[in-house]
Design goal:
102 residues, four-stranded antiparallel beta sheet, 0% helix
């Protein structure tokens, strides 16, 4: 059985998982990997809001039954644990347009 070594960082960043219903549509020339898609805000009551362009989505926080580990391969048999994801943000409703009042 092959052995894999894990190194746990001293301080783990808090990460979350975002789940969207539908898809993010963009022009074919634009690559989504590493791109800034929107801003995630959590209000005082703990409700997440995702702002993408001129649209806003309101979601809810769901605690994961089994946490997920985010790991980075540093050498051939060594992995570094970057973060542990314990919650996900679910956005099921349709986006609402942001309208500015003059």
């Amino acid at each position: 059985m092959p052995q894999v070594f894990l190194k746990i960082q001293n301080t783990l960043d808090k990460w979350g998982l975002i789940e969207l219903q539908g898809m993010v549509d963009c022009p074919p020339a634009v690559k989504l990997q590493g791109a800034h898609i929107g801003d995630l805000h959590i209000d005082s009551s703990g409700t997440p809001q995702l702002v993408i362009g001129h649209h806003i989505l309101t979601g809810k926080v769901h605690k994961l039954d089994k946490p997920l580990g985010v790991m980075l391969k540093t050498e051939e048999k060594t992995w570094t644990v970057k973060s542990i994801i314990e919650e996900k943000y679910i956005f099921k409703t349709r986006p609402k347009p942001i309208i500015q009042k003059k």
